[in-house]
Amino acid sequence: MRRVLSAAVAMICFASASYSQGWFRQPTPNDTLRSTVVLPDNSVIFQIYAPKAETVSLTGDLPWDKPVHFRKMDDGVWKGRLSPMEDGVYRYKFIVDGVAVYDPKAPLASETSALLTLDAGSDVFFAMKNIPHGAVAERYYWSETLGEMRRLHVWTPAGYEKSTEKLPVLYLVHGGGDTDNSWPGVGAAGLILDNLMAEGKMTPMVVVMPNGSIAMPDGNMIGEVPVFADDMVSSIIPFIEGNYRVCGDQANRAMAGLSMGGMETLEVTLNHPEMFSHVWVLSASFAPGNKEVYEYERMRLKKEADRYNRNFKQLVFTQGGPSDIAYNNCKETLKLFDEAGISYEYHEVPGGHSWTAWRQNLYDLAQRLFK
Question: How far is it, in rounded angstroms, from Cα 56 to Cα 115?
Answer without folding.
Answer: 27
